[in-house]
Amino acid sequence: MENLKAISSDHTSLTTEVFRELEKAILDGRFSAGDSLTELKISKQLGVSRTPVREALRQLELEGFVKYVPNKGAIVIGISKKDIQDIYEIRMVLEALAVRWAAENITDEELDQLKDVVELQEFYAKKGDTIQVWQLDSKFHDIIFTSSRSKPLMNTLSNFHHYIQKARELSIKAMGRAESVSGEHRKIYEALKNHDAENAAELAKAHVLAAMENFLNSYK
User: Fold this and answer.
1) Domain boundary among 33, 48, 76
2) For the chain, where are the E strands, in sequence order?
3) Is 162 a domain residue?
4) What are the residues whose beta carbons fall under 8 Å from the beta carbon of 71, sequence distance 6 or more?
5) What's the CA gap between 62 and 201, in Å, rounded?
6) Is residue 147 part of a domain?
7) Nearest-angstrom CA–CA distance, 137 and 211
8) What does the pLDDT look like over 150-201, one tens digit per residue?
9) Is the pTM of this model over 0.90?
10) For residue 59, what is the enclosing H or E element?
11) Which residue range is the domain that position 122 belongs to?
């Protein structure tokens, strides 16, 4: 983990930075369910005092990432397979809504941005570069969330994408999934370009369903 001491001298900001670093470590699998997070060890790793670490761990407990066990301290709960499947199920509904609203509100500039992302994904998919396809996946969805013109929907879906980033990576790395993703994104883009809200919504549902099925098949 990165040494955070030089990043901020402000106590509140430092606590936030520690929280984000620990949250990221849990979400990307560096900490697994059952791991014990000790204040002293983490404070040494991050180069900070124990106070911001203690407060960050309390925030992680409130967010449901860790639980305090007597004589053991903070134990990682993480994100379970069921949690991830639930998020995919919710995303099917919410992303269909986001795409429907995007079809009504998307600008020509946003369509151009979306087209650029799709073309880059197609390029990297043909090269077999799944990391680039995965990273561009977030950009594709972020443009749609923004073009929905709904802040509550955008924030909710952005948080879901953040929470299941490792699952999304596993899904895209599954055999042949990178090319499928770029193809599905191409169809969604075309529907948005035509301002076809109904078709775009159905394509979004199918896209999230395919991602969920790939995750479940690759989950270990």
Assistant:
1) 76
2) 36-37, 66-69, 73-76
3) yes
4) none
5) 34
6) yes
7) 11
8) 999 999 999 888 888 777 776 777 767 888 999 999 999 999 999 999 999 9
9) no
10) helix 50-63
11) 81-218
